[in-house]
Amino acid sequence: MFCPNQECPDFLDTGIHGEYVDIVWQCPVCGARLVHELPSRAAPDAGDEPELAEAGPLVPVGTFVNRQNAELARSLLIANGITAFVSGGELLVPESQLQDATALLEDADRNA
Question: The domain that contains 94 carries what CATH number?
Answer without folding.
Answer: 3.30.70
